[in-house]
Specification:
Blueprint: H1 5-12, E1 26-30, E2 33-34, E3 46-47, H2 48-60, E4 64-66, E5 81-88, H3 92-103, E6 109-112, H4 136-144, E7 148-151, H5 164-182, E8 188-190, H6 198-207, E9 211-213, E10 232-233, H7 240-249, H8 256-272
Parallel strand pairs: 1-5, 1-10, 2-3, 4-5, 5-6, 6-7, 8-9
Bound molecules: zinc ion.
Amino acid sequence: MWIDPLSKRLLKNAGLIPATQGRGPVVLMYHSITPGKGRPVPKWSVSERNFMAQLDLLKSKSWTTICVSDLLRSDSLPPRTVAITFDDGFADNFEHAFCHLRDRGMTATWFVVSRDVGGVSGWTDADVPVRSMLSAGQLHEMAMAGMEIGAHTRTHARLPELSRAEIEEEVIGSKKELEDALNLSIKSFAYPYGLFNEESVEAVREAGFQIACTTRTGWFGSDPDILRVRRVAVFSHDSLSAFARKLAFATSDVSWQTIARYTAGRIKSRFFEK
Ligand SMILES: [Zn+2]
């Protein structure tokens, strides 16, 4: 797949600033991966062809893939590091994502809705059909291959809409259900819909999670709270050039207008506001 020269140049300089300067690894967020090359209708799904092209680009440019809990030692990570994450735990991820990662010696983290493991997605979103979910056997095989399994609540709950007791049931319950089903220690968490408030962050801390991801965009380290890690969404319509710019700018909006505005702001602050 083709990349325009400017995006290629931006990618060449991406991932080189040390995490200590607030520009740590980019954490990418995926959901469903659909077989074949057709563009999926939901923007949150990525085609298998695009996903493989994105992995091959990372590999060809010598990027290192890590799991989310590896970010806890971000000071010792090499330049050009990226954390790949999948939310929800859709069954299509096994054949169309996990296998491609494993074949390339790459790793990723899956945030799984614990109640629905081995079943179907039991929550309803307007434009998302009911989907089959990864089984405990598949998750175990993925973990044995070096992938990380994290939690995403028990039922894909909107945490800020719940009482404190309900939040705890969702957060602590998801950790326990996954640990019991997989016989693994579950260290990482992602807030469904990216929704969180002080109470839900506190519940995540008290449950014993070491790191948690939001859907706010930015580099790892741009929010100092390890329980509010920022991520960059990869969409169904992203070209390989757009994907390269996401790695360079750590934002989900990489239209040229946005990048021109960002670059102008950086130049202005560098030359005129010293
Ligand atoms: Zn989700």
